[in-house]
Specification:
single chain, 189 residues, alpha+beta, 8-stranded antiparallel beta barrel, 21% helix, globular
């Protein structure tokens, strides 16, 4: 999927559905063991650097990693610990020219580096993230690019895995890493 639109006038969102749960986790090894027991498939270990740029609507991010490289402009709306993602731009494996243009035309807000283990369980993509300060997070993401599954169904898939992994609601993170790590108070409102 590749689509490009100016960040301040995002236009029509891309057609796929995306629902995400993010939480702090204390027992990283236990969660990883449980994922394997539940049949999750290990995709790989990625060293990622996320560059966040100023935009009038949502977030504009460049992710550079070993496995995942993307320019994405999106907005997340949180309800009861689950975030619905509306995507306006998604460019997998952007060219050097696209990256340079992004950096030239947009003000950088912050940079987040993380180590990410990537798993798949059915239609779910699971990220086990470790931040430079040692904090651990899990992100459970359900994506439907076929429009054959309702948003409620993919939301329930995320919630079901959260329950199986024993992640309490009190550990949910209602903002992204930029807000948590760089601007913990400023960008939450």
């Amino acid at each position: 999927v590749s689509s490009s639109m100016p960040q301040d006038n995002p236009g029509i969102p891309l057609s796929y559905k995306d629902v995400t749960i993010k939480a702090c986790i204390n027992d990283f090894a236990r969660i990883e063991e449980m994922l394997i027991t539940l049949g999750a498939v290990y995709i790989g270990h990625d060293a990622q650097t996320d560059y966040y740029f100023e935009t009038a609507n949502g977030k504009l991010k460049l992710r550079q990693g070993i496995i995942e490289n993307v320019i994405i402009h999106y907005r997340r709306d949180e309800t009861d610990g689950v975030e619905k993602t509306t995507v306006f731009r998604y460019e997998e494996n952007p060219t050097a020219d696209q990256v340079n243009q992004l950096k030239k035309e947009n003000k950088l807000l912050g940079v987040i580096k993380k180590s990410r283990k990537i798993y798949r369980a059915g239609k779910l993509k699971i990220h086990l993230d470790t931040m430079p300060g040692g904090q651990h997070f899990i992100e459970i993401e359900a994506i439907d690019v076929t429009n054959r599954v309702t948003e409620e169904e993919i939301k329930n898939q995320c919630l079901e895995l959260k329950q199986k992994l024993g992640i309490p609601d009190s550990h949910l993170v209602k903002t992204g890493y930029l807000q948590e790590m760089v601007f913990p108070q400023k960008l939450r409102s």
